[in-house]
Specification:
Layout: H1 2-23, H2 26-48, H3 55-68, H4 82-85, H5 90-125, H6 130-155, E1 156-157, E2 160-161, H7 163-182, H8 214-225, H9 229-246, H10 250-268, H11 288-317, H12 321-349
Length: about 350
C-alpha cells in the first residue's frame, strides 16, 4: 500500500516538473532574476529607511506570516476509485495519512523558516524586540500544529476515513497546483465548473445583437459563467490594487501590476477553446476571422476594464506621472501587441 502511494506521489511530482520547465523558460528566468534583484535593493532601502507611518508595514508583516501558516496542506494522493477498491485497507491508508500530516508539517516548517528569515530584518528595523519575535515564532508554530491536527481529524474520524472530504480536498490541492502552472502554459486535467452570475447578465448587452457579434456574445457569456476565469480575474485585480496601494516603492508596484495583467491575459486565452466541444459552432454562417476578432474584443474589454480601475487608483496614489504612464503604455502593449500575437499562435496550433 505504501508503494502504491509512493508511485502516485512520484507520478504527480514528475508531472509538475514537466510543466515547471515551461514556467522557468529563459525569458521568465531572466525577468525573475532582474525583478528579484530590484526587490532586494528596494527591500534593503526600506529596512534602512523606515517611514514614520509604520502601520502598513506592521500589517503587511503579520498578514505575510499568517499566510505562511496555510502553505502545505496534507497531501493524501487519494483517487476517486479508492473509495470502493481500497475500502478494506482503511487502516493502512489512515497510517499513510498520519505520515503525510508529519510531512506537511515539516514542509510547511521549511516554508515558514524561509519566510521568517525574509522578514526578520524588517521586523528588527521596526523595533520589535528579539524576545517578542522568538515568542511570536513559537506561537505560529503551535498554531500550525493545531491547524494540521484539526485538518487530519476531519479526514480520520472515529468510524474510519471520511472519504468524501478526503477526496474533495486532494482534488482541490492538486487542482490548485495545476492552476498555477496553467498561468504559464497549457495544462491537461484541470476541471472547470459553470456558475451563472445573474447580476452580470446586464453586461451581456455591451455588444449589439448582430450576426457578426455572435462570437463576442458567446465568449463574454462563457467568461462571466466560468467557474475559474472570472474569480481569477478578481484575484489578480485584487493583488494589483493592493500592490499599488500598499507597496511604498512605486516601480515595484507598477512592475507587479504589469505582471498580474500579463498573467491574466495569458490565462484568459483559454476562452478560445471554450466551445470546441460544441460541433454545431462549425455550422455558423460566419468566417473564422469573426471568432478571432470576437475573442480579441472580449479580452480587450476585460483587460481594459482592469486597466481602468488600476489607472484610477494609480492617479490618486502616485505622484510620479512617469510610473502611471509606464503602467498605461505597458498594459496597452499587452492588449494590442501581445494579444494578437498569442491569438494567432493559438489559431495556427488548432490546424
Amino acid at each position: 500500500m505504501s508503494d502504491l502511494f509512493k508511485q502516485r506521489k512520484h507520478r504527480f511530482i514528475e508531472r509538475c516538473l514537466k510543466y515547471l520547465r515551461y514556467v522557468l523558460n529563459d525569458h521568465f528566468v531572466l525577468f525573475l532574476l532582474v525583478f528579484i534583484g530590484f526587490l532586494a535593493v528596494q527591500y534593503s532601502q526600506l529596512s534602512k529607511n523606515i517611514p514614520e507611518n509604520r502601520l502598513a508595514l506592521y500589517l503587511g508583516v503579520f498578514l505575510f506570516l499568517i499566510a505562511l501558516l496555510f502553505i502545505g496542506n496534507i497531501a493524501t494522493y487519494l483517487e476517486r476509485p479508492d473509495k470502493y477498491f481500497l475500502l478494506t485497507k482503511e487502516k493502512e491508508i489512515g497510517q499513510i495519512i498520519q505520515q503525510q500530516t508529519i510531512s506537511s508539517l515539516l514542509f510547511g516548517g521549511i516554508i515558514q523558516a524561509l519566510g521568517w528569515l525574509l522578514v526578520l530584518p524588517l521586523m528588527l528595523s521596526l523595533g520589535m524586540p528579539v524576545v517578542f519575535i522568538i515568542g511570536l515564532l513559537f506561537i505560529f508554530i503551535a498554531v500550525r500544529v493545531v491547524y494540521l491536527n484539526y485538518r487530519k481529524k476531519e479526514l480520520l474520524t472515529k468510524i474510519g476515513i471520511n472519504w468524501d472530504v478526503a477526496l474533495l480536498r486532494e482534488e482541490k490541492r492538486q487542482q490548485s497546483i495545476l492552476r498555477f502552472f496553467a498561468l504559464f502554459t497549457n495544462v491537461k486535467g484541470i476541471s472547470n465548473s459553470i456558475k451563472r452570475r445573474k447580476y452580470l447578465d446586464g453586461f451581456l448587452t455591451i455588444f449589439a445583437k448582430k450576426q457578426e457579434n455572435t462570437w463576442k456574445h458567446l465568449f463574454l457569456r462563457s467568461y462571466f459563467r466560468n467557474g475559474d476565469l472570472f474569480p481569477l480575474t478578481l484575484r489578480l485585480l485584487g493583488i494589483s490594487l493592493i500592490g499599488l496601494a500598499l507597496i511604498p516603492q512605486v516601480w515595484v508596484g507598477v512592475g507587479l501590476t504589469l505582471l498580474m495583467n500579463y498573467l491574466l491575459l495569458f490565462q484568459l486565452l483559454a476562452l478560445y477553446g471554450a466551445f470546441d466541444y460544441q460541433q454545431l459552432t462549425l455550422l455558423f454562417p460566419l468566417d473564422k476571422k469573426f471568432k478571432i476578432s470576437g475573442l480579441l474584443a472580449v479580452l480587450r474589454l476585460v483587460g481594459g476594464s482592469v486597466l481602468l480601475l488600476e489607472m484610477v487608483l494609480a492617479l490618486f496614489i502616485y505622484k510620479e506621472f512617469q510610473a502611471v504612464l509606464v503602467l498605461f503604455v505597458g498594459s496597452l502593449a499587452l492588449l494590442y501587441l501581445y494579444l494578437p500575437f498569442k491569438v494567432k499562435s493559438l489559431v495556427d496550433e488548432s490546424f
